Amino acid sequence: AAYLFHPHFRHLQPFVGVGGGALGFFPTIGPHQWRGAGLVEAGLDIPASPHFGFRVQGRSLIYRAPNFNNAAISSRSWVATAEPSGGIYIRF
């Protein structure tokens, strides 16, 4: 879940999102593990009409690396995963 900050401009509408959630790691052998994650995203909304448009964004999840309750593979480090995305939006 994230809260989007939307400054209003005329044609292009940039946004920044901040939030959090959880990631589940499910290996084929052994126990699964959940990690809390922070979310940071930034992007641009391109309106095509008052209620419809296109969205381009980049998102980053920040979380502690899983160790699956095994001290031998525990790195105790933080990981950041970034992904670009695009899509359409509908406003009510």
Radius of gyration: 18 Å
Class from secondary-structure proportions: mainly beta
Q: How many helices in DSSP terms?
A: 0
Distance between the termini: 19 Å
Mean pLDDT: 90
Question: How would you describe the oligomerization state of the chains in this entry?
Answer: single chain
| Uncertain segments | none
Characterize the largest beta sheet: strand count, sense, and whether it forms a barrel: 5 strands, antiparallel
**From N to C, what is the helix and strand string?**
EEEEE
Main β-sheet, spatial strand arrangement: 1-2-3-4-5
Describe this structure in words.
The protein is mainly beta and 92 residues long. Helices cover 0% and strands 65% of the residues. The chain has no helices and five strands. The chain is elongated and about 55 Å long. The mean pLDDT is 90.
